[in-house]
């Protein structure tokens, strides 16, 4: 997608939406902090499930974006490891708008450079990892296992790691799948339809249009082993390739 794909009106509307996004965060932050303090952190689930989606919908409305969720399953397990395709900065708004129960996000370490994200992220128990250091990232995830199990939390991760990857669906890292095996959690794949088409990628400059979060049937990992892990990751990634409507390729999982 090139700069010429966007008209003046879309730039203006996007700038208004971005401004609204930060204003909403600034207004909501003291309210959220108050709730977390008076409940000794127990309001974290309420913040993620109820307040976060409410904060995102005005931003979508200003941007001219219609957001919808479609659940392609009779039942969604709790807890679980949720995985998403990651292709644009718009994904950040989309995952916040989902409001999934007892969910925590695995985000890149750099998000903490924003003091608001740092404060709210830490207080609500989000997980920040250094993606460029695979061993350190895995170690950070393993340290959270006790808390995740104790509080019966679900985790959301992007197997592609960064939005900067070749093609529509980038190579999958093994981290989310190793975590699912370690925790003995099923994997629930979510495919974001429209995010890449509406966003410029590295900014929140967007076109108006439709976004849909397709939440698919959970994947049972009871027969997964270290020996067959790559095979299963390749199969999961092939589903995303199919959902994206592109031809299959031979990109192997990366550690």
Can you tell me about this structure?
It comes from Fodinibius salinus. By secondary structure, this protein is of the alpha/beta class. The protein contains 9 helices and 7 strands; from the N terminus they run H-H-E-E-H-E-H-E-H-H-E-H-E-H-E-H. It has helices at 8-38, 44-63, 90-98, 115-123, 134-143, 145-151, 175-183, 195-198, 229-244, and strands at residues 65-72, 81-84, 103-108, 127-129, 154-157, 187-193, 209-216. The chain has a 7-stranded mixed sheet, with helices on both faces. Strand 3, helix 4 and strand 4 (127-129) form a beta-alpha-beta unit. It is globular, with a radius of gyration of 18 Å. The mean pLDDT is 86.
Total beta strands? 7
Query: How are strands sequenced across the largest beta sheet?
Result: 1-7-6-2-5-3-4
Overall mean pLDDT score? 86
CATH architecture: 3-Layer(aba) Sandwich
Q: In angstroms, what is the radius of gyration?
A: 18 Å
Q: What are the segments in which pLDDT stays under 50 over at least 5 consecutive residues?
A: none
Order of helices and strands: HHEEHEHEHHEHEHEH
- CATH topology, what is it called? Glycerol-3-phosphate (1)-acyltransferase
Shape: globular
How many angstroms separate the termini?
29 Å
Number of domains: 1
Main sheet characteristics: 7 strands, mixed
Helix content: 40-55%
Determine the number of helices (DSSP H or I, runs of at least 4 residues). 9
């Amino acid at each position: 997608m090139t700069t010429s794909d966007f008209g003046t009106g879309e730039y203006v509307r996007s700038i208004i939406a971005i401004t609204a996004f930060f204003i909403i965060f600034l207004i909501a932050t003291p309210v959220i902090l108050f709730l977390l303090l008076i409940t000794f952190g127990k309001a974290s689930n309420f913040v993620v499930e109820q307040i976060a989606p409410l904060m995102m919908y005005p931003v979508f409305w200003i941007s001219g974006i219609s957001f919808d969720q479609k659940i392609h399953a009779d039942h969604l397990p709790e807890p679980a490891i949720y995985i998403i395709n990651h292709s644009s900065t718009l994904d950040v708004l989309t995952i916040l708008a989902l409001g999934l129960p007892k969910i925590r996000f695995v985000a890149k370490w750099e998000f903490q450079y924003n003091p608001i994200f740092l404060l709210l992220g830490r207080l609500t128990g989000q997980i920040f990892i250094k993606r460029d250091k695979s061993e350190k990232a895995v170690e950070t995830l393993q340290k959270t296992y006790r808390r995740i199990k104790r509080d019966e939390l679900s985790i959301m991760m992007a197997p592609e790691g960064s939005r900067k990857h070749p093609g529509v669906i980038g190579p999958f890292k093994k981290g989310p799948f190793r975590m699912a095996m370690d925790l003995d959690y099923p994997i629930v794949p979510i495919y974001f339809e429209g995010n890449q088409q509406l966003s410029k990628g590295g900014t929140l400059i967007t076109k108006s249009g439709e976004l849909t979060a397709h939440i698919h049937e959970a994947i049972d990992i009871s027969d997964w082993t270290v020996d067959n892990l790559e095979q299963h990751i390749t199969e999961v990634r092939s589903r995303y390739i199919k959902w994206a409507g592109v031809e299959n390729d031979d990109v192997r999982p990366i550690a």
